[in-house]
Amino acid sequence: MELKYKNILLKLSGEALMGKQKYGIDGEIVSYLAKEIKKAHDLNVNIGIVIGGGNIFRGVSESAKGMDRVSADYMGMLSTVINSLALQDALENIEIPTRVQTAIEMRQIAEPYIRRRAIRHLEKRRIVIFAAGTGSPYFTTDTAATLRASEINADIVIKATKVDGIYTADPLKTTTAHKFDKITYMDVLNKRLKVMDSTAISMCMDNKIPIIIFNIYKEDNIKNIVLGKKIGTIVEE
């Protein structure tokens, strides 16, 4: 099968890992995500992954109110490491070699992020999960995803969500919301669509990396995206 995208950066929200739970990690959901990722890996796609930490702690959440923003953001980064280790375990349980690299050094549990080493892992058919965001406060994991995508020369950023693309309004709340099949970076910024934060969108625009927003809970979506099928909404120039 001919691939449209050989090198991808998959962005997963922390909430994607908790399934129907109110917080934490749902083992069955993590196992499902690993199997979906494997379908693309089996096609010889190089896969980098960034996971959020919102299922455990988010720096701008209600639970962080009254906290120093920098401390809260670092707590959020540590949450992404927990999620990354959970996904690594699920991937290795189905025999996919996986490495976790962290932007904050914690050598006992993961490698420090080194760009050349990450690229070498990908060349050796290992999945690389980039944890701890950018390593700096005030930056979201969306920005971390676009930064890592730029650094590993990804062909595309694919962002997994609960809905099947970008809409004019939240389709879970507004029945008249209209779905975009394709939209430009500038339209996302000008319309203030809540796809990714503006820093992440701008970085993709500057580096000409398209973004696809898709529903992670529909089977084979990751596989179909790398094969070039029209899935979700694509953001490009």
Could you explain the architecture of this structure?
The structure is a single chain. This protein has 237 residues and is an alpha/beta fold. It has a single domain, classed as Acetylglutamate kinase-like (Carbamate kinase, 3-Layer(aba) Sandwich), CATH 3.40.1160.10. The chain has seven helices and eleven strands. It has helices at residues 27-41, 69-93, 115-123, 141-151, 185-190, 198-207, 221-226; strands at 7-12, 46-51, 98-102, 111-112, 127-131, 156-161, 166-167, 179-180, 182-184, 211-215, 233-236. The protein has a nine-stranded mixed β-sheet with strand order 4-3-5-2-1-6-10-11-9, sandwiched between helices. A two-stranded antiparallel ribbon has the order 7-8. Strand 1, helix 1 and strand 2 form a beta-alpha-beta unit. The longest helix is centred in the middle third of the chain and has 25 residues, at 69-93. It is globular, with a radius of gyration of 17 Å. The two termini are 27 Å apart.
Question: Brief description of this entry?
Answer:
The protein has 237 residues and is of the alpha/beta class. The protein has seven helices and eleven strands.
Order of helices and strands: EHEHEEHEHEEEEHHEHE
Q: What oligomeric state is this?
A: single chain
Shape: globular
CATH topology: Carbamate kinase
User: Helix content range of the residues, please?
Assistant: 25-40%
**Number of helical runs?**
7
* CATH top level class name: Alpha Beta
Distance between the termini: 27 Å
Largest sheet: 9 strands, mixed
Number of strands: 11
Structural class, by secondary structure, is: alpha/beta
**The CATH superfamily title:** Acetylglutamate kinase-like
CATH architecture type: 3-Layer(aba) Sandwich
Mean pLDDT: 94
**Which strand-content bin applies to the residues?**
15-25%
> Regions with pLDDT < 50 over 5+ consecutive residues?
none
Overall structural domain count? 1
Give the strand order, joined by hyphens, for the main sheet: 4-3-5-2-1-6-10-11-9
Task: Please give the radius of gyration in angstroms.
Answer: 17 Å
